[in-house]
Amino acid sequence: MALLLHDYFRSSASYRVRIALNLKGLPYRQQPHHLAKGEHRAPDYLRINPQGLVPALVDGDVTITQSIAILEYLEEAYPDTRRLLPAAPAGRARVRSLSAIVAADTHPLNNLRVLKYLDTELGLDEPARTAWYHHWLKECFDAFEARLQDEPETGRFCHGDDPTMADICLVPQIFNAKRFAFDLAAYSAVMRIFDAAQALDAFAMAAPDRQPDAE
Ligand SMILES: N[C@@H](CCC(=O)N[C@@H](CS)C(=O)NCC(=O)O)C(=O)O
Questions:
Q1: Which residues are near ligand 1 (CB < 6 Å)?
Q2: Are 211 and 32 in contact (CB under 8 A)?
Q3: So what's the pLDDT on residue 2?
Q4: Per CATH, which fold does 89-202 belong to?
Q5: CATH assignment of 3-82?
Q6: How far is the CA of 19 from the centre of ligand 1 (A)?
């Protein structure tokens, strides 16, 4: 039975999972939930993910939420597919550490519900919300770029010459940054890897504008 991905074309956490499924060659169906229309808060979806966030992945009778947990699940449940983590413990730790810069320390500060809270509860205007958004992106990309430049494991991709979970987290974050007009000119290693990833079908086909619900 094909996997079912609950997603939204602009959701960067969903985008991570789409890339991983494509890299692994696992067929999947998509069930979009329009975030701007609040469809992720509908009772039917809250039964799938009580957090009211996308993505969620359904694999037979298993439902998994949280994109990183989904990536780890795919890695373990489908061991004969392309690996998203290196074999050696130190390499695995490095890839997870790079991934966490985006997934743990950046994306949660800039997602829709946070921006809405800044607007409706704290009364921050659009320039202030953009300053917030850009501040956390700068923290993210400054550190990510420094590590890519300084660490010898960096190759054509974040870790060696094949894409890993780190690239899967990085690329959607760059899409978000572009969408919010964040200047990426200073990040040459980050952008070199972004271009290398975009040249792969697995990444290109997962992009927001290639999704069935794209507007
Ligand atoms: N840590 C979660 C984050 C999920 C998340 O924040 N998803 C966003 C879209 S990228 C969402 O559903 N936002 C809805 C909202 O903020 O109301 C994951 O990695 O899956």
A1: 11-13, 35, 40, 53-55, 66-68, 103, 111-113
A2: yes
A3: 86
A4: Glutathione S-transferase Yfyf (Class Pi); Chain A, domain 2 (1.20.1050)
A5: 3.40.30.10
A6: 16
